[in-house]
């Protein structure tokens, strides 16, 4: 029977992605419990490898003309649902934080708050992330004009990686850890998961850069790049809320 949807062939990548994600979370438990980092690094490597080879297949489907209007609409709807779940995820984090802060704000100040200096590394990271949002918007405007935004994407990727280094450097100089009650847990959980979302955003934009370098984009069909830029702005907004809530 004829239909407009694209029926994909059997793929092992979703199964391996589930295994890799499970391995990452289990290795995080091992890392926090025993301080062993090798399992975490191995699982992250396989996760990234699976992400890129799976993305390669999706790009080849698009380049082969399988992504028609119906498929594009389904992908856009899936992206909207994905961002919606991310919004609810971070909303729950902020809900927990402000609830505990209202009940026991002194504990937060004694354990975490007095050690945080918003005008130092957090402010630097905020500026870096906001500038990266500007460069990603510039890249989007370049694509609309029918050109390849290689320079803008490279700048955005550099700033995103720089933000991760700033956050990692801050972690190594803090005087509390994840086991210091609810205050330490919520700080590392919120900023750490935001960092993971920055990593995901960097990966998405890097895939976009590879596609532009391979001439797999056109000014009429760039929903993946557009979605990646929107996701990057979402990461920016979440960090602004974290910066204003946690650090200030």
From TrEMBL:
Species of origin: Enterobius vermicularis
The protein's name in its UniProt record: Cytochrome c oxidase subunit 3
Transmembrane segments: 12-30, 36-54, 75-98, 118-138, 150-166, 186-210, 222-247
Membrane topology qualifier: Multi-pass membrane protein
Family of the protein in this entry: Belongs to the cytochrome c oxidase subunit 3 family.
Domain of life: Eukaryota
GO biological-process terms attached to the record: mitochondrial electron transport, cytochrome c to oxygen
One Pfam assignment: COX3
Gene behind the chain: COX3
């Amino acid at each position: 029977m004829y239909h407009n949807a694209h029926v994909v062939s059997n793929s092992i990548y979703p199964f391996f992605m589930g295994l890799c994600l499970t391995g990452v979370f289990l290795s995080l438990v091992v890392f926090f419990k025993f301080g062993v980092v090798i399992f975490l690094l191995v699982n992250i490597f396989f996760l990234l490898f699976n992400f890129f080879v799976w993305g390669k297949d999706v790009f080849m489907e698009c380049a082969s003309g399988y992504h028609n209007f119906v498929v594009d609409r389904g992908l856009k709807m899936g992206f909207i649902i994905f961002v919606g779940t991310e919004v609810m995820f971070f909303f729950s984090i902020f809900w927990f934080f402000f609830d505990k802060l209202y009940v026991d704000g002194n504990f937060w100040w004694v354990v975490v708050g007095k050690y945080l200096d918003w005008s130092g590394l957090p402010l630097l990271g905020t500026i870096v992330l906001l500038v990266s949002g500007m460069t990603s918007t510039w890249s989007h405007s370049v694509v609309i004009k029918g050109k390849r935004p290689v320079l803008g994407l490279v700048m955005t990727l550099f700033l995103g990686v720089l933000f991760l280094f700033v956050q990692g450097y801050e972690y190594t100089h803090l005087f509390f850890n994840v086991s210091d009650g609810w205050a330490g847990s919520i700080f590392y959980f919120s900023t750490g998961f935001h960092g993971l979302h920055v990593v995901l955003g960097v990966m998405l934009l890097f895939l976009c850069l590879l596609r532009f370098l391979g001439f797999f984009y056109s000014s009429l069909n760039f929903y993946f790049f557009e979605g990646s830029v929107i996701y990057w702005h979402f990461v920016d907004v979440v960090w602004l809320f974290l910066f204003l809530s946690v650090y200030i």
